[in-house]
Amino acid sequence: MASRATDSGLDRLYQLPLGGFTEARNLLAKAAGPGGAAIKALEKPSVPAWAVNQLYWRERRTYDRLVRASERLRAAHAQALSGKKIDLPLIELQHRAALKEAADAVRRLLASAGDAATQATMKAVVDTLQALPCGGAPGRLTKALAPLGFGALGALMKRGATSTSLAEVVTFAPPKPKPDEVAEAASRAKEAANARLRELDRKAPALKKTLAAARAAVDRAERARADLEVKLQAAVAELAERRLAWERAERESRTLEEERAHLRQTV
C-alpha cells in the first residue's frame, strides 16, 4: 500500500506541467526505493487527460459541479428506464451547463499552460468530461475517456439489473431540483447561447468576405478554363491539319523515291 508521502508525491506529479512529468516521475520513483518500479511504470498523460486533471486540481468546484450533474443525469436515466416519471430535459439542461462551464475552464487552463486547444484536443477533453466520474483516482488520468453511453443502463434493465449492478453505474437518485437551480441552469444556458451568438456575429463579416473572395476566385478559374478549352480545341484542330499535311508530304516523298529508283534502273 502506498504511503501518504508517496500519495502526496503522486498528486503533485499530476499537477506539474506536462513537459516535466517524465523527469519528475523518475525522481519520485528513485526516492520511493523498493516501490519505485510501479511509479517508474506510470504512463505520461496525453494532453486532453492532463488538461482534465488540471481541472480537478485547480478548479475543483467546477469539476465537482460537473460530477454531481453527471451523477444526477445517469441516475435520472436509470430511473426513467425503470418506468419512473423523471424531468429529463431539466436534468440534461443542468448537465449541459456544467459541461460547458468545465470545457471553458479547461480551455483557459490549456491557454495558460501554452498548449493549443485544438479542435481534436477539445473534442477529446469534452468526451472525457462527459465520462466523469470514472474509476480510478481523480486527477490522475493518463488517457482521454470515451463518454458513457446510457445504452449500458438499458442493457442492465433488460437483463433484470439488481440494485448492486445498477449501483455500479448510478451513484444516487436525482433530487428534485430547487427553483434557484432551475433558474441558474437556464441562465447559464442562455448566457452560453448568447455568447455563442455574439461569437458567430463577430465571425460572420469576415466569413462573408472570405466567401465572396472564394466565389470570385472560382469565377476567374471558370473563365480561365473556358479560355483554355477554346485554345485546346484550336490546338487540336491545328494538330489535325498538320498531321494531314505531314501524311500527304510523306506519301509524296515515297512516290518520288519510287520514281527515282525506277528511272535509275532504266538509264
Question: What key attributes describe this structure?
Answer:
single chain; about 270 residues; mainly alpha; about 75% helix; elongated
Describe the sheet with the most strands.
none
Give the H and E element order: HHHHHHHHHH
Shape: elongated
* Binned strand content: under 5%
Residues in helix, %? over 70%
The count of strands amounts to 0
Distinct helical segment count: 10
As a whole number of angstroms, the C-alpha radius of gyration is 35 Å
Write the layout of secondary structure elements.
Blueprint: H1 4-13, H2 21-31, H3 36-40, H4 47-58, H5 60-81, H6 88-112, H7 119-131, H8 151-158, H9 163-167, H10 179-266
Helix pairs in contact: 1-2, 4-5, 4-6, 4-7, 5-6, 6-7, 6-10
Walk me through what this model shows.
With 267 residues, the chain is mainly α. Among the domains are: 4-40, no CATH class; 47-150 and 157-177, no CATH class. It is built from 10 helices and no strands. The chain is elongated and about 120 Å long.
Brief write-up:
The chain has 10 helices and no strands. With 267 residues, the chain is mainly α.
